[in-house]
Amino acid sequence: MTITFITGPAGVGKTGRAVETLRGWLTNNIPANNILVLVPQLTLAQPYRDLLRDSQLAGAGTVDVLTMNGLALKTIDLFWPLIAAPAGFGRPTAPPIFLSIETAQYYLQQAITPLLRQGYFDPNVVPLTISLPRLMSQILDNLNKAALMGLPHTQVGQRLAASVALEPSSRVALEHTQACVNRFREFCLARNLLDFSLRIETFDRHLWPVAGVKQFILNRYRYLIVDNIEEDNPFAHRILRDWLPKTAESLVIYDEDAGYRIFLGANWRTAHKLSDLADETIRLTESHVAPPLMLELGRRAARILGVEVAVQSKNPDSMEAKAKAEAKPPTTPNPQSPVTNPQSPTPNPQSPIPNPQSPITNLQSLDPRPVMTFEQQRFYPQMIDWVVARIAALIKEDGVSPNEIVVLAPFVSDALRFSFTNKMAQLGLPARSHRPSRPLSEEPAAKTLLTLARLAYPHWQLLPEPFDVTQAMAQSIAGLDLIRANLLTQVIYRPHQKPLDALADVEILYPFEQIEGNIRDRISYDVGVKFDRLRTWLLDLQNQADPPVLDHFFNRLFELLSQPGFGFYGEQEAGEVIANLIDSARQFRQVAEQVPLAAGSNGQDDVRLPTIDELNRAYLATIEEGIAAAQYIRSWDAAPDEAVLITPATTFLMSNRPVDYQFWLDAGSSGWWERIAQPLTHPYILTEDYPAGRPWTDADEVAAQQDRLYRLVVGLTRRCRQHVFITNAEVGEQGYEQRGQLLIVLQQMLRQLQREDAANT
After folding, report:
1. Environment class of residue 491 by beta-carbon count within 10 Å: exposed (0-12), middle (13-18) or buried (19+)?
2. What torsion, rounded to 10 degrees, do the Cα atoms 507, 511, 517, 518 define?
3. Residue 239, exposed/middle/buried by CB under 10 A (0-12, 13-18, 19+)?
4. 478-506, pLDDT tens digit by residue?
5. Is 70 exposed, middle or buried (0-12, 13-18, 19+ CB in 10 A)?
6. Under 8 Å between Cβ of 159 and 686
7. Number of helices followed by number of strands (H, E) in the chain
8. Would you kindly state where each structural domain of the chain is located, as residue ranges?
């Protein structure tokens, strides 16, 4: 038995070693089905999947690459008859039904609707106004965090109330949250529905402790690779502490100064404790990605925030010389900037978020200005213009591949995405976005198909608003602008000719060929021909005796809209969104068609399963609520066509790929270090190693913010090979002056460098 613990910062080749270890195991004829690769999320498994595609590698086809959640799901499915009744499920002879994040929100809404009707979360009672999607996401988050830390779900509200300073009315909100948590768990147990939290609890309490089940897993997976352990959760760490000593050989990889998934339950502190089990600990320090000057940029920023991190790069002398030779001249901050320069607050020594001290491996004082450019503009649109112009120069003048450029912001709003991609398109530059937490219903391509589905089946009585039809027409027909799309909608969309109950016999889309007068000419004949083709397709589908399920409908409709002359032709990002929508609708159908409909008055389940029409209507209603989208692996894969990526900074870090050039937008934004407001949950209090009942103070919040910012800055600089462009708008996107902590740190750094220049001269 050998346990190897590999630690080090990003870019030093830890995953590369793990991949070679896997190759060596397979080459040495270790059975592939005895090997398990565990990752915190499947997007981090790409290097292993690439290796396993090698057809010359013996036995590679059956190596399992899973998350701990995936392992729990497989084990529950296998041993369901053994634990269904002891775990308290209401239908132990029926199979388990595993919920995605989308279907979990669908059934959560069903479970808590009676409570909401009774006045729960009434703004007159609780001092907060919260949308239903946000309410549901925080309720599920509480359930998930409780399961990961081993806390009974009935104690979540009590745990939060004991540590967060609240007014009496705010405590009522936590009581309402606890009631919703309890109701949803009862709802799931009665129907064999296993959301993420119930999967974790079932595995943790009813499967892993069973000697036969544990031995089955230990015998099956005798060789273990655990990558990015710092991004995993205490539940995974508890299981691994029991599992690792019983393996024939195992390799654990820990990324220093990381832990970006804290809002999903990640805990780098409990992860690092696994190093106690190691027979051999290897620390890698030489970066194969970032040059010394780039590492120095991250080190100086971290030092201002009160953290010391290591600075070392492979072949530092040659890389430093190359970096200085290729670097762009730095831009100093505007001396007239209104941003003040207070000292960074000192972390609270009692904070539960301690900053790890890493040894300095290169004490030489370096000047990072050659690898960074700071640009300040007065207004937000000017900042975007500058970024696009600089990207154009890199691509057209310096020959940089668009794939080697990434634009990062704390959040990528619709306005930012549209402004950036539109300006890039005007210059003929390719751009794409990746926002994994964004609801599918807010993506223009998905919203187009959802609107057309409503038009195809008017008897659902879910007819869209004229504005939505206008947007759908503009998206569906190539070359159709919004003005003509609005005019087209006015003349062809006729939803109110008959009462709603007679809509099944009404053609709500009027044929363009029958329109006369100058309106026909204003819209254009070419647009009219394409619209009539789309209308005929929808009518043919509507007249079929057996209407298709929505995922089939979306698939066939996309085949039409991706043809020349229609809006999705050649649009790779639209195709990716529609593929995610099809997967979402399919997963929803496969779950919902197994769950009997709830009867009304008697409170018992009806034996009748939902019809296709009921499934379709339920999906449309659910997805258009704006629920959080599930994670789709294809959205994380690098685009086959070269394009500049714009994405949130944390999303980029979790993709774990280096680039040559980074643009950090809006350095003055508070989003770089402040966490999203979540009044009904808390990512730090709901952790395994946070003392129960200990008050969460303002000093704790500041320390957590500093911890988040230093991890972001250090993580980004370690994934950049050439140059970082940092931009700021004095007047931000919302029209306010900005004084965010990242901007303050950068200004302190530049002033320190100026003082060093003066001292040297």
Report:
1. middle
2. 110
3. buried
4. 989 999 999 999 999 988 655 444 444 55
5. middle
6. yes
7. 26, 14
8. 2-74+202-283, 97-191, 292-339+370-435+648-671+701-760, 440-625
Judge if 2-74+202-283 and 292-339+370-435+648-671+701-760 fold alike in CATH terms.
Answer: yes
Query: In terms of DSSP bridges, do strands 2-8 and 280-283 run parallel, antiparallel, or are they unpaired?
Result: parallel
The CA-atom distances, in angstroms, between 364 and each of 306, 311, 444 are: 19, 10, 51
pLDDT above 60 (res 390):
yes
Which run of H or E residues covers position 652? helix 649-655
Predicted confidence at residue 237, as pLDDT, reads 96
689 φ, ψ (degrees, to nearest 5): -100, 15
The pair phi, psi for residue 222, each rounded to 5°, is -95, -10
* Pick from 554, 466, 542, 553: nearest CA to 507: 542
Instruction: Look at the domain 2-74+202-283 and name its fold.
Output: Rossmann fold (3.40.50)
Q: CA–CA separation, 134 vs 118, rounded Å? A: 19
- Counting every residue written for the chain, the total comes to 761
Q: Higher-confidence residue: 514 or 473?
A: 473
CB 107 within 8 A of CB 87: no
Give CA angle at 22 (20, 25), nearest 5°.
Answer: 110
Phi, psi of 702 (to 5 degrees): -65, -45
Of 79, 80, 45, nearest to 63 (Cα)?
A: 45
For residues 176 and 157, is the Cβ–Cβ distance under 8 A? no
What pTM was estimated for this model as a whole?
Answer: 0.87
* Cβ neighbours, 10 Å, residue 471: 20
Does residue 450 register a pLDDT over 90? Answer: yes
Helix, strand or coil for residue 724? strand
Greatest alpha-carbon span in the chain? 87
Query: Where does residue 119 fall: left (phi above 0), alpha (psi -120 to 50 degrees), or beta otherwise?
Result: left
- The rounded distance, in Å, linking the Cα atoms of 626 and 628 is 7
Half-sphere exposure of 227 (CA within 13 A, CB side): 27
Q: Which two tokens stand for residue 191?
A: 């129907």
Residue 498 neighbours by CB under 8 Å, 6+ apart: 505, 506
**What would be the CATH architecture of the domain defined by 292-339+370-435+648-671+701-760?**
3-Layer(aba) Sandwich (3.40)
The Cα–Cα gap between 6 and 251 comes to: 7
pLDDT digit string, tens, across residues 142-194: 999 999 999 999 999 999 999 987 777 778 899 999 999 999 999 999 999 99
- Nearest-angstrom CA–CA distance, 689 and 691: 6
Buried b / exposed e across 532-566, counting CB within 10 Å, b at 16+? bebbebbeebeeeeebebbbebbbebbeebbeeeb
CB of 379 within 8 A of CB of 723?
Answer: no
HSE at residue 307, side-chain half, CA atoms within 13 A, is: 29
